[in-house]
Amino acid sequence: MSKAYSMDLRERVVKAVTQEGMSRRQAAVRFGVGPSTAIRWIERFEETGSVSPDQIGGHKPRTIRDDHADWLRQRCREKPFTLRGLVAELASERGLKVDYRSVWRFVHDEKLSHKKRR
């Protein structure tokens, strides 16, 4: 994952535009950043009064939770299933769009999977 530009650089770009009268594109060339980056920094400064970056990364809550999780637990205990089948059932019956990996992680974490034995 990329790292945010330093606050010093952000402040110098904003200062060049707001106090020295440079255009946003000229400031971008002068400080070696992309024009769209300089434009966004100036917009952020005008809106919030700060050039500090937003949070990068963080926790993303799982899609399968609450009522959907309860339904999926019950469904897995009722009859045999395939993960792709569960993805399709969640989409058609519950209106929840999830991918194969999300369903696999949920089933694995809940220890709902079983091996077929002959």
Automatic annotation (TrEMBL):
The record's annotation in InterPro entries points to:
Homeodomain-like_sf, WH-like_DNA-bd_sf
Name assigned to this protein: Putative transposase
UniProt organism field: Fulvimarina manganoxydans
